[in-house]
Amino acid sequence: MERVEVAIVGGGPAGASAAERAAAHGAETVLFEQGVPREDRDGLGPDSTDAAGMLDYWIDIMDFDYREIPDDVILRELEGTEFIGPNSAVELTTTGMDASYPEFGYTFHRARMDDWLYERAADAGADLRVGTSVTDLETDLRTSSPNGPTHTLTLSNGDQIRAQYVVLADGPQRRITLDALDQFTAPGRSVSDHLSPPEANHIAYQEYREFPEELFESDRLKFWWGYMPGETAYPWVFPNDGTVARVGLTMPIGMQLEAVDDPGSYALLEPTDDQLPSGSEYITRLLEHEYGDEYDVESDIPIVEDRGKSKGTETYPISSTRPIDSPVGANIAVAGGAMGTTSAFHEGGYHVAVRTGKIAGRLAATDSLENYNDVWKRAIGDEIRRNVAFADIVADYEPDDWDRAFDIVSDMQGGDGDGLLSKKYSAGLGATKILAAYKKRKYRYRDGGYVQLSEDEYFY
Ligand SMILES: Cc1cc2nc3c(=O)[nH]c(=O)nc-3n(C[C@H](O)[C@H](O)[C@H](O)COP(=O)(O)OP(=O)(O)OC[C@H]3O[C@@H](n4cnc5c(N)ncnc54)[C@H](O)[C@@H]3O)c2cc1C
User: Fold this and answer.
1) Which terminal residue of the chain, N or C, has fewer Cβ atoms less than 10 Å from its own Cβ?
2) What is the dihedral of CA 86, 199, 323, 236, to 10 degrees?
3) What's the pTM?
């Protein structure tokens, strides 16, 4: 049987970054990516979720110098973002964080960025096998290897390969991660109790639309909050190249109209609805709501069919949970979306995927994977803690709450470097209450308390 030191399951940003670091540190490294077709890439590649916005300080979290990112990856430099509530709006022109990148952020061509990570991994010497899935992983805890547990991976072509260390980077669906980790959970318990609760599973859908010049806003992201029901359910517009923008949304899987308390309060629901709209219907309604008075949406803002996954549209699963520790005692690190690092609030996750992947790859290659859980917390813990605390606060927000919050944020002034919610402002009692709630949540999640499955819950 073929043997390698480091095997990586999944070749998104987490897996590709792990492969690059592991190979750069001299380990014999192989990465398996099932391979997904896209209209905008020749051949198979990773499942490049193309919403792709990057904030200034996220580049530092990725541990990249922004000058090394190829020019053709960046589509639009951003000056800010706009959050639009039912009767309010707030514009942010700074993330409030220290950052090397001089602008607010950028939108990027996700497939090109992912391809660049592949080039780096290949240059470092990693063996990237695109088009091969991993179908099973079994860990041998009692192996005679001096470096402890080893793993047998079964591949879609029927081959098997043995690895000393495994990095699981199979993204939010966690096809391999769940069973692999369940080897080490207590009888009757499953990792899916933590990572797959129904309320954490979302579907994301987006369309590429060509906008008339006068409607196209090239330097800002736009998010509409309180327009559709459900936790972490919101539409957005991200500018691409030319006057093409991605118009997308995220919504909980399986939510029913009956579960909505006050359907009439949501701008994108209609009194005649007998069920919640589909993703594409929501997008049509958003565009009608915003531009329908003066434009014919289907002919003036048409779908651009030669982009995305299929005919100008893309659908992805997305899972926004709190992260888990990895069973490092079994020589396994889980990285990126698979470990639950994607933010429930803004869906951002590329930066933490890259960083956790880099850490996992380096530690696996240097026989020090036992430090993974400590090292990733030091690197991305502040970011995760902020995101988890913020997501908690807004989890039950209804349209009125968003209006109230945006009015308060509009009144904010100044900042002290911990993002929006740490700012000193003079917006009265409402602001004080939000800030107090945020601080309380953050305190609750101190010392890695945001982890929902900790290392000591695994059994070897
Ligand atoms: C609609 C949407 C918009 C988003 N917008 C942003 C944004 O603007 N900014 C941002 O930072 N983040 C954004 N994110 C989040 C970001 O896309 C994810 O956090 C990031 O892709 C996670 O990277 P990953 O490598 O962990 O997983 P993924 O990118 O999901 O990669 C996992 C890879 O594993 C492969 N795979 C799965 N199973 C197997 C298997 N058994 N064998 C082999 N290969 C396998 C898949 O094909 C895939 O390529 C968005 C997500 C969605 C869904």
Assistant:
1) N
2) -30
3) 0.93
